[in-house]
Amino acid sequence: MGAWRRNRDANSMWLATTNYIKASAREELGVSTGVSSGHKGDWWWNEVVQGKVKAKKAAYMKLVGSIGEEERRACMERYKVSRKKAKLSVTQAKIVSYGRMYEELGKKAEEKKLFRQAKLRERKARDLDQVRYIKDEDGRILMEDS
Predict the structure, then answer these.
(1) Spatial contact of 39 and 94, defined as CB atoms under 8 Å apart
(2) Dist. CA 47–CA 44, nearest whole Å
(3) Residues in contact with 49: Cβ distance below 8 Å, sequence separation at least 6, in sequence order
(4) The whole model's pTM is what?
(5) What is the mean pLDDT of each run of 10 residues along the chain (146 residues)?
(6) Which residues pair with 141 in a beta bridge?
């Protein structure tokens, strides 16, 4: 009976601690809307790249699920080919998009795009010590720059 009571007390203490931490984080950081628009930072992403990446992922899943040595070897070859195609399509998409961006930056009206790109790079370069996000008890992501 005593062990059960200790476990119950430890669980209630743990729940109280986690609730306090979540409440403090919500109070200090705020709560985001949780809406994400897919590849927001990857402005060069297009349907061709998406198709190649999906094919690469499918080939990888077949490789992971392969059983025999011969099947594994064949799946590995298919995965390597699809991986190279995906990398090539990403590179081509970036080249085309950067070329278009540099042409547009020559115009005065496109100055906003330059600042948007700089802001995006700064956001990606932030070091958050591997913490992606914190969720509250309702499953909403708690987040604010500070």
Answers:
(1) no
(2) 10
(3) 86, 89, 90, 93
(4) 0.49
(5) 62 83 81 58 81 94 91 94 94 88 71 76 67 72 61
(6) 135
